[in-house]
Amino acid sequence: MVIALVAGFAAGLGGGTLGARLGRAPEATSTPTPDFQAQVRAAADRVLPNTVLVIAELPNSQAFGSGVVVSQAGHILTASHVVRGASQITIYTSNGESRPAKLLTDDAPFTDIAVLQVAPQGLRQIAFGSSAALKPGDFVLSLSGGTGQFGTGNTVALGVVSQTNRTMARPGVTLEDLVQTDAAINSGDSGGPLVNLAGELIGVNTSVIRTGPDDSEVRDVGFAQSSDSLRPIVAAVIASGKYPRARIGLEFPQQQVLEIDPQVAAQRKLPVAQGALVIAPAPNSPAVKAGIVPGDIILGVNGQPVTYEVPMVNLLKRLPKGVRVDLAVLRGTQRLTIQVTPED
C-alpha cells in the first residue's frame, strides 16, 4: 500500500501587529499527528479490499482503470470510459486474484459510470456515505487498483474536498453532481473510490483537469461522481440489472448529434446558433422509428430549449422513466414536433 499525503496541515498565524497582539504564532508544520495518521491508515485499510483493478480489452489496445465493490453479489462501479467498447473485461482484487467481469450497465453519456458484476466470493462491499454531508476542506482518500506503472499494488492519495455540486462541460453534455478534490487522480485511477475518513464511499473518480482554457498548467483538480447520485443507479442495477434512461438514439454527442454553437453554425451555414444537429441516429432507434433523419436540428425537448449551457443529453437525463419525448425539430425551413417513445 502506498499512501501519498498531498494535503497541507496546520498553518501558523502571520506576524506584524496582529501577531504581536496575539502572541507568537506556532510554526507551520506539514507533519500529521499520530492520531490523524492512524485514522487515515484505518480508512485505507478498510477500503483497499473493496478496490479492484479493471482491465478492458479494446479493439486495438487495453484500457486500465479501477473499480469499487458495492454489493455482496459482486457489483462493481467503475468509469464508463475505461470499459466502453471492450470485448472482454477482467478485474484484479487487492490480493492479485483475477476474475472475468460482465458489463451490466453503461450509463454514458449521462454520467461517466458503468456497473460490472463478477463472482462475489471473498469480496467485501464498501459502505456508502453521504456526499451531501461533505464540506470544502473535509479530508478524503482517493484509491486505485494500481496499474503497475510504478510497481504493483493498490495506491492511496490523501486530499481535501475542494467543492461539491460541481459540473464539467464536455462536448454535447455537462456532467453534473461532481465532487471536486485535490487528491491525486492519475492514469489508471478512473473508476476508483473517493472516500471519507470513515472509509465510506462519497464518490467514484472519473476525471482530472490538467490544462486550463488558455492551455496553462492546472494542478490538483480532480472530479468524482457523487455517491448520492450513484445510489439510485446501484439500487436499480442490483434489482433489475439495468438503470433506465430516456434513450432515443440521439444521446451520444459527436457520434449521433453535434452540438451547435455560433462557430459550428457559421462553419456549416446553419440557420440557428444553438440546438443539436442530427448526424447519424442509432439504427432502429426510437428516433429513427419516429422519423428523425440526418440534417434535422433538435431545438427543444418537452418544451425546454437545447442550448450550449443545457445540452440535449442533460434534458433527456432529467426526464422520468416512461415519459414520452416531444422533440422540437427544424427540418429545412419547417418547424415540426416529433413524438418519440424512449427505450427502457
Walk me through what this model shows.
The protein has 344 residues and is an alpha+beta fold. It has 2 domains: 1-243, Thrombin, subunit H; 257-340, PDZ domain (Pdz3 Domain, Roll), CATH 2.30.42. It contains 7 helices and 19 strands. The protein has helices at 16-22, 34-47, 80-83, 227-240, 262-268, 286-290, 312-317; strands at residues 2-5, 51-57, 62-69, 75-79, 88-92, 98-106, 113-117, 139-144, 155-170, 173-181, 193-196, 201-208, 222-226, 257-260, 275-278, 297-301, 304-305, 325-331, 334-340. The strands form 3 sheets. It has a 6-stranded antiparallel β-barrel with strand order 8-9-10-13-12-11. Strands 2-3-4-7-6-5 form a 6-stranded antiparallel beta barrel. The radius of gyration is 23 Å and the shape is globular. The two termini are 42 Å apart.
